[in-house]
Amino acid sequence: TLVTGVMLVVLYGPQAALGAWLKDNLGLSMIFAPPGIILALLFITFPFVVRTVQPVLLNLDRVQEDAAATLGAGAWTIFRRITLPPLMLPIASGALLSFARAIGEFGAIVIVAGNIPMYSQTAAVYVLGEVESLPCA
To answer: What DSSP string runs through 6-51?
Structure first.
């Protein structure tokens, strides 16, 4: 995850072309700001959702979708009534796994967030600071 943090700083830092463009055109600062934290967490945790949804998608039977299309159902109706219901549990479990991973994420966040109290400080970095401030025995 440290490599992810370094990669995001290289891509979205104030000296990088993409980071400078985002700052100049959209007023969006990615590094040492909440958008960077969100981007880092999405980059690190999204594979958990993909890994839970992918097997279900591969095992879905296209016959039901084809039958619905033959009976005149539109693409949105097919997705909402046939494709999405079997995916709800995998999406929920992937989101839960992602959330659990994001809560404990440290490597990329400590690089991207900058540990600015009450602005870009995350739970894991806060706990580290509190543990480091304890007196040694």
So the answer is: HHHHHHHSTTSHHHHHIIIII----TTSHHHHHHHHHHHHHHHHHH
What element of type H or E holds 92? helix 84-104
Largest CA distance in the chain: 74
Q: Would the pTM of this model clear 0.90, i.e. be above it?
A: no
pLDDT band at 111 (very low <50, low <70, confident <90, very high): confident
Average pLDDT, the chain: 88
Handedness of CA 26, 29, 35, 36 (dihedral sign): positive
How does pLDDT run across 21-33, given as a tens digit for each residue?
999 999 888 888 8
Q: How far apart are CA 128 and CA 111, in angstroms?
A: 14
Q: For the CA atoms of 128, 133, 135, 137, what is the dihedral angle to 10 degrees? A: 20
Residue 56 corresponds to which tokens in the numbers above?
């279900």
* CA distances (Å), origin 122, targets 19, 37, 96: 22, 9, 18
Per the model's pLDDT, the better-predicted residue between 98 and 106 turns out to be 98
One-letter amino acid at 90 equals P
